[in-house]
Amino acid sequence: MRYLVTGGCGFIGSHLAERLISLGHHVCILDDLSSGHAANAPCEAELVIGDVTEEAKVRAATDDVDGCFHLAAAASVARCNSEAIATNRVNLVGTLTVLAAAARRNVPVVYASSAAVYGANAAVPLGETSELRPLSVYAADKLACELHAGVTSHLHGIPTVGLRFFNVYGPRQDPASPYSGVISIFADRLAKRQELTIFGDGGQVRDFVFVGDVVDALVASMAHRRSGAFVCNVCTGEATTILGLANILADIVGAPARLAYGPPRAGDVRVSVGDPRRLAKVYGRAPATGLRAGLTALLHEDAETSPAPARAQRMTASLTAGRT
Question: Helix 291-299 crosses helix 242-253 at what angle (to 10 degrees)?
């Protein structure tokens, strides 16, 4: 098959591109490199540098593809809250552009939604039928994407699948990026023997899911897609506090966690734990990587997991030569 992956130079997108290629598929990546890195793209992938709001480029990229994985987004909640119009253009207008191009070619779309759509909902574990209470611009945009995907499926008959990712972690997540989660930041600071900053009391509860399991869900969603519109959690159902996370990481590293406390973040959800049963029922399995095993893989990541120098040189050469 031939697949388009928007945001394929980013954290999740590059892992997905690698998996698709390992399965024998052809992959075209559309990425504007605003947060992803060209060196993350597999050498075998076709790279198109462009924005998901550019109609002409999105249309051209969806020509002759068998499916589209739409992962490109401005994923920083803080940035979305402070730059609502600019990030709405990427997150919502970009999704509409992809959906319109896909409808034109009758291309199925699997796209990234977010657990943020549930907001401060105390009815945990959060299932797909739980009340939706978005508390941020990012969450509102993601919910709007789900609504538009449903309308596109209804009007044009293309299958769409929205995957509500919970807290995704794993190799290749840049700890210096504002898009990164707490795990990559903690892991980086522990490796440098620096103190960890806890915002609030550390009792916030999260559902951490390994990137390899997220890729499993993405591939299964495309391979076993249903007609119409569908949404599904991608989570483990396991609850971990931020303090508990710090202690597990410190134990794996073999160094004590030195903690510093800061004020709670405005709008921070206290408890976010998902129900993975729909994912398991529809696709045959739920994320299976335990937190300790996933953290060990992240912390003991070997050189093969990071972009190899040869790959980086090859991608730089391609960009210099004017590849678009």
Answer: 50
Structural domain count, the chain: 1
CATH number for 11? 3.40.50.720
Predicted confidence (pLDDT) per residue in 237-296, tens digit: 999 999 999 999 999 988 888 999 999 887 678 999 999 999 999 998 889 999 999 999
Active-site annotation holds for 3: no
With 0-12 / 13-18 / 19 or more C-beta atoms within 10 angstroms meaning exposed / middle / buried, residue 138 is buried
Task: Please give the C-alpha separations between residue 104 and each of 53, 70, 101, 142, 245, in angstroms, as whole numbers.
Answer: 16, 16, 5, 22, 45
Range of the domain at 310: 2-320
In 61-142, beta strands by DSSP E: 67-70, 109-114
Nearest of 261, 234, 248, 257 to residue 294 by alpha carbon: 248
- Residue 161 CB coordination number (10 Å): 26
Eight-state DSSP code of residue 92 = I
Q: Which of 3, 111, 138, 169 is catalytic?
A: 138
Cα separation of 58 and 51, whole Å? 8
Q: What is the pTM of this model?
A: 0.90
DSSP code of residue 28: E
